[in-house]
Amino acid sequence: MEDKAGKIKELVEKLNLARRTYEQEDREIMSNFEYDRLYDQLKELEEETGIVLASSPTVNVGYDVVSQLPKEDHPSPMLSLDKTKDPQTLKHWLGDKEGLLSWKLDGLTVVLTYENGSLFKAVTRGNGTTGEVITANARTFENIPLSIPFKGHLVLRGEAVIRYSDFERINGTLPETEAKYKNPRNLCSGSVRQLDSSITASRSVNFCAFALVDAGQEGDISDTREGQLKWLTEQGFEVVPYKRVNGSNVEEAVKWFSERVSENDIPSDGLVLTYDDIEYGRSLGTTAKFPRDSIAFKWEDEIMQTKLLYIEWSASRTGQINPIAVFEPVELEGTTVSRASVHNVSILKELKLGEGDEITVYKANMIIPQIADNLTKSGTVKIPETCPVCGSETVLRQDEQAQVLFCPNEKCLAKQIKSLTHFVSRNAMNIEGISEATIEKFVDLGYIGQLADIFRISRYRDRIVQLEGFGEKSYDNLINSIEKARKTSPARFLYSLGISGIGAANAKLIARAASGDWEKMRGLTVDELTTIDGIGQVMAENYTAFFADTDNSEKVDQLLSEISFETEETEVSDELAGKIFVITGSLEHFENRDALKEYIESLGGKTSGSVSRKTSYLINNDINSGSSKNKKAKELGVEIITEEDFLEMVKGGSDA
């Protein structure tokens, strides 16, 4: 009995930690499969021994709120739901009653209060007893009605969610300094609980109502769950998609939902079955943790056995190096799966993974590949002592209760995704077909460890063509673009290095001053640079400091071994020399404004994005437009010319 009591305590601590890090810190230290397995194990031990700790997750529904948002107690506790993975259980639970089967949305539960037809208050579920007031943030949800036809007191519950399509888009635009979110639920939680509502507004949060809590005595509102959802729809709310079911068709309805999980844009982690008769559901009361009018259904995971081939260590822009299991492909939930995140070193060690181990894998919520168990537990995988990207010595940190591997090198390329993105951009090396997301993936996989490795990517051809979103055609297009970029100009190459203050125009000025001689450009002194019109003291010091750094010098040498320089046209127009041009409006003779800017700068002119007293000409084909640039130019006496006027100016200069 003592051993079982100790095991109960151990399980409670482990499960509470996993739930706290997931719900409050938006981190995963344990897979869903492992959590459910340990939860069921705890429940069995509690029933067997009669010991239930006050802190047990089987009787507690949440944790204290830890953010700085204002707190507010809920009028009545918001309980979690009992759950099952057996559709037959749903049938028996429903009996001869009718119910609504709906998605169990995976976001953040929010309670909305309306007074006199206007949104009055929004509070998160929090720990079930106390929530956080997020009214200002809720007003920015994309589909939430700020005013409704009903003018009485109204309280309803729903889920704040971020769609998968928005998640991919938003995650890809987060600043380099921010860690990527692992799933829409984490991104939603981080977005809804912001102290700055402008951030919430940028995150495309949606609200799906799933229950009417209180509408006072006013109005003719249905006493059925379906009737209330329809009434909420009439008030302008989006409600959770559902199917009306009974004992004879509930299993068929579960199958219908399961076949649509992969195409559902709204994140869900199962289904919810609720009695349609609200009064009947209320008459059943509640347990200490669960209401008896609803039950959750979690998918019975399809588990397949396969062989672990190796562990891939993926470096991120935050410095964390995450283990990824690569295994022999298996069919899961209708798709071929060969990779699964192991999340951190603690989970890796707990699973005792080793190359060649027989493992079982599944898709959490039928979407995210995970390892369920390791059948052979060889434990032979070694934690890398060096970063797979930069080769620096790694550091194993204890992050809460999880061990996490980090690269401490601030110059690690994995932390400098933006510099890589700049290097391949159109005005730099102009390598098409390699987006920031692709670069990050290649860095994570260890295919790119320094800038020069972009030109050596063909070494990983067989692996790249197997990546999601890639194939033979995409790979061939990328290689062709890389080969084309091997021939470039000294100015483009200089700009691609990302030296502070050296934009495309300044790079051309420096290249022209050095007659396109790269070695001369590289060795310019501060004094020599400041003699170039447009290059100031700070810019010159940044320039020389860059090339004086031995790491940068090595990086440049590696790149020079992969590229060659084209002869650059150094013609300068006397008409353009020293003149500053601003471009606005649509163009007829040039592909875009960048093309015209490049042409102006190649002839010795300068460009700017805004009109000022220093501006020589504003180029605008619509001279009489009421644009802000036109107005500013007229106020300052800056001459406005068309493309035709500009080309005549250039022609006149060349004839002279």
Structural notes for this entry:
The chain is α+β, with helices and mostly antiparallel strands and 656 residues long. The chain folds into six domains: 48 residues; 227 residues, D-amino Acid Aminotransferase, Chain A, domain 1 (2-Layer Sandwich); 103 residues, Nucleic acid-binding proteins (OB fold (Dihydrolipoamide Acetyltransferase, E2P), Beta Barrel); 70 residues, 5' to 3' exonuclease, C-terminal subdomain (DNA polymerase, domain 1, Orthogonal Bundle), CATH 1.10.150.20; 78 residues, DNA polymerase, domain 1 (Orthogonal Bundle), CATH 1.10.150.20; 76 residues, BRCT domain (Rossmann fold). It is built from 24 helices and 24 strands. The strands form six sheets. Strands 12, 13, 14, 15, 16, 17 and 18 form a seven-stranded antiparallel beta sheet that branches. Helix 12 packs across helix 13 and helix 16 crosses helix 17. The protein is globular, with a radius of gyration of 31 Å. 34% of the residues are buried.
